[in-house]
# Entry
Amino acid sequence: MAIEGSASIDIDAPIDRVYAIAADVEGSPRWQPEIKKALVTERGPGGEQTFVKTEVDGKVRTLKSDLRFSFAGPTGLSWDQEHGDLKAVRGSWEFEDLGGGRTKATYNLYVDFGRTLGLVIRGPLVGILRGQLCDSMPAKLKGFVEAEGA
# Structure
């Protein structure tokens, strides 16, 4: 059982600020309440948060993932699960400077729950999780970024 999706939104903030907030993985629980824990265990030479242990509210149970991040600031970042409760997790943020201090943010996510969790996650729960883990993410980032700039 897998969830895959993409969602975009325009944000009233410059690309550098939007990128900085999205790239602060350790601070992501401030605007992503489903993330219960984000512990950075490895940093890149520029201080990038390259390896992060996360715990996410998966509705059925807390899901743990060790994620490896790659950064291409200010136009995006991506991540892949190296270890965890799920079979696979891949995601990314893509940012486009729209001019006038506006940024288009696109969130992409692929989650394969694997066989065991896939048996439990069915029916309406799939839509709830897609909404929580993917569809709502750009609006959460927008709300946080725009509130920070107010």
